[in-house]
Design a protein that fits this description.
Layout: E1 5-9, H1 13-23, E2 27-32, H2 36-45, E3 50-52, E4 65-68, H3 75-84, E5 88-91, H4 99-111, E6 116-118, H5 126-136, E7 143-152, H6 156-163, H7 169-172, H8 180-190, E8 194-201, E9 210-217, E10 222-229, E11 239-245, E12 248-252, E13 263-267, E14 278-282, E15 288-289, E16 292-293, H9 296-314, H10 322-340, E17 346-347
Parallel strand pairs: 1-2, 1-4, 2-3, 4-5, 5-6, 7-10
Antiparallel strand pairs: 7-11, 8-9, 8-17, 9-10, 11-12, 12-13, 13-14, 15-16
Helix pairs in contact: 3-4, 4-10, 8-10
Bound molecules: nicotinamide-adenine-dinucleotide.
Nicotinamide-adenine-dinucleotide binds at residues 9-13, 32-35, 38, 55, 69-72, 92-93, 119, 121, 169.
Length: 354
């Protein structure tokens, strides 16, 4: 196969992804945005690509794959349309905005000769991968409690500039919705699916700012996730993850700078073969691209796009497949229902094959 021919929908985060697509060896042949300014910016950055206004025009291009980086709550209909054309899909979060959409997306991916991948770079971030290694090596035992944060320590003015416009997707989505940067690592680390969700507003005086969700997992473990705007921003791309197993703990170090990517592993003496307590900090090796280290915050994106390329070119399984994508996204939908019902626990709806 010649270089994978990619189209991109939405040219803000999408332009960032398009640039990395090129760096990892794919060719961006077409792109679209309804905003003329974004199209002008894209023409400057993507010479040779056809840059158009309407995403449906990309259906007529000779594409192997498409990257969906349009509005957060509008991805599923586009993903289904491209899958029906046999075009491989890499979709930003959320995968779907309702149970019905999620079921339709899974059915479309199952029917298609192409594949669906979720663009969840948080699953491939350095600290999450290090924790996964400890889980796979059996160091932690069975996972009992898993916590994940996706938090921004912004000023009230900056927060309002980001989410204050109800006409923009950031302003119209419920405060539980943007949960896949926590839930996708949770599901990937536990190999479990969500069973029941309870959501709480953190501060009743400022209910939009942040939520905590308690998600019961099919493995029996509990996931506690916090997201939104709280002071104490983690330097590891706003992400902090902690896993308590029956034998040990592995968690991101709460520290600034490079150490934010490190993982602390604590094993009590009773669980160690030599009876000695171990408490160590591990820093993942740098990921190289063309022999050069990738900056830490971009590692997840680079690994994600390399995995997507391998899925399209070599038939490798998607890094985050459609069922995990839909399950993580629906936690935000069900969480919103829990909030609307006084933080009552709400069961997750059934999904085919989960
Ligand atoms: N994984 C990450 O780290 C990460 C980071 C930022 C954003 N994102 C995701 O990327 C997506 C986009 O986020 P953003 O910050 O770029 O949002 P944005 O609103 O700033 O930009 C979206 C762009 O898409 C265009 N667009 C939307 N719908 C379109 C349509 N139907 N046809 C043509 N153009 C359309 C808009 O004009 C806009 O330029 C969201 O799903 C967001 O969650 C992910």
């Amino acid at each position: 196969m010649t270089s994978v021919r990619v189209g991109v929908v939405g040219l803000r985060m999408g332009l960032h992804l398009a640039m990395w697509c090129r760096r990892v060896g794919m060719t961006v042949v077409a792109a679209c945005d309804r905003d003329p300014e974004r199209r002008t910016a894209a023409r400057a950055e993507l010479p040779g690509a056809a840059v158009v206004e309407t995403w449906a025009h990309l259906l007529d291009h000779d594409l192997d794959a498409v990257v969906l980086a349009n509005d957060f709550d509008e991805h599923a209909p586009l993903a289904i349309a491209f899958l029906e054309r046999g075009v491989h899909v890499l979709s930003e979060s959320a995968a779907c905005a309702s149970h019905e959409e999620g079921r339709e997306l899974i059915a479309a991916a199952d029917r298609s000769r192409a594949t669906y991948s979720f663009a969840e770079n948080y699953v491939a971030h350095p600290h999450v991968r290090l924790i996964r290694e400890a889980v796979d090596a059996g160091e932690l035992g069975r996972i009992s409690l898993i916590e994940a944060d996706y938090l921004h320590g912004m000023s009230p003015q900056d927060m309002n500039a980001l989410v204050g416009d109800p006409a923009h997707w950031r302003g119209r989505i419920p405060p539980t919705a943007y949960c896949t940067h926590t839930l996708s690592p949770v599901l990937a680390l536990t190999d479990a699916s969500p069973v029941e969700v309870t959501a709480f507003v953190v501060d009743e005086a400022d209910p939009r700012a942040a939520v905590v969700m308690a998600t019961r997992l099919s493995s029996g473990a509990l996931a506690l996730t916090r997201h939104g705007f709280l002071q104490g921003e983690p330097d590891s791309h706003w992400s902090w993850v902690s896993v308590r197993g029956t034998r040990a703990l592995a968690e991101s170090v709460r520290a600034p700078g490079e150490r934010a990517w490190a993982v602390r592993v604590r094993t009590e003496g009773w669980a160690a073969p030599d009876g000695r307590t171990r408490d160590e900090e591990r820093l993942p090796p740098r990921h190289l691209l063309d022999g050069e280290p990738v900056d830490r915050a971009s590692e997840g994106t680079v690994r994600l796009l390399q995995a997507f390329r391998a899925t399209v070119e070599e038939g490798k399984p998607p890094l985050v497949p459609v069922r995990s994508a839909v399950a993580a996204s629906l936690v935000g939908v069900i969480g919103a229902r829990s909030l609307a019902n006084g933080s009552r626990p709400i069961p997750m709806p059934a999904l085919p094959g989960l």
